[in-house]
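Sequence in, structure out.
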Amino acid sequence: MATTDTSPHTTPCLAATCHRGLRDNELANRQTICTPCVHVIRVWLDEIPKQIIVLEGSRLRETTGAGTGGRVAIRTAPLPGRPDVLNLLGPAAWADGIRDPYGDARDDHDGPLPIAGVLIPWVRAISDERRWNPPASLTPQALAAWLAVPRVLDYASRRPWAGDMRDELHELMRTIRSITRLRPQRRPIAQPCPRCDGLTLVQTDHQLYIECTDDDCKALYTRDELAIAARLDIAKGSRVCLTKNCAGETYEIPTGRLITRIHYCAPAT
């Protein structure tokens, strides 16, 4: 099948956090990052507005009474809000340059960039290159929705900076989830991996592919591909074989735009 092809994929995905090679259909689309990376970017962009709802409700610090019931003397008054949350929800300028006659502007910012500050450069890069109108609002929700438009994301996936975009959004989502504690769940799949035969398949919420977590395999499968593999495995009473020049039979099943090829040894007699 397309995701379990044993032929080498020498063109790597440009995302530093991805170790997958580009497939033929991705190269034909002139992508510089793989389809799973494109999918996860869309998942993150769709998730940002939902995470912002939680961040908005987490602006204020949690307050508790003093343990002894008395007053607590402090040297300075505490901030009314959480600086990490306020940082993420803060505004960001559309232009790069700011007037800074004293050279102190860099010291005014502490902590991670705001969500808008991460998204604006990518919106601006795409809108300038393609002469597309940017979103009317520079809110994080509007910026994320604009980047998630299929034609916009497809264009971004073919640019030489697509890997940097994926890596920046990956770091942004790690920061957001570390505050909200809302993370996709990972669940084991009770089916052997068609490539390595190990019980190492894991499904993550909203991910396009189910992943084999074996360090020597790292295969990716769609749910349809695993269903086909399971049905063929049961019907033939045999196991997937990767032995070269084996006399077993190879079955070809259309899956989307590709052909799924599953090779089985003859059942043992």
